[in-house]
Design brief:
72 residues; transmembrane; transmembrane helix; mainly alpha; 0% strand
Length: 72
């Protein structure tokens, strides 16, 4: 069944991303140390959580490989 939205609701839900990869690349080449904190805190947190989660999963899997195989 189609869901009908008012046009004003749809327009209000559009999100614009203010990210220009070419400008970021040029700024990194020109000033590598100054433009390094250009990474937003949310992206940095997501990256750190992904790395930590991957490390935890690999450690648990390597320690409990036999048990995990039986669980599957």
């Amino acid at each position: 069944t189609p869901i009908l939205y008012k046009k004003s609701d749809v327009v209000a839900s559009v999100v614009w991303f203010d990210y220009n990869p070419i400008a970021t690349l040029f700024s990194l080449v020109k000033n590598p140390l100054v433009s390094l904190p250009i990474i937003e805190q949310d992206y940095l947190n997501m990256f750190v959580l992904s790395v930590v989660g991957w490390c935890l999963v690999s450690v648990v899997f390597s320690r409990c490989k036999k048990n995990i195989v039986f669980w599957i």
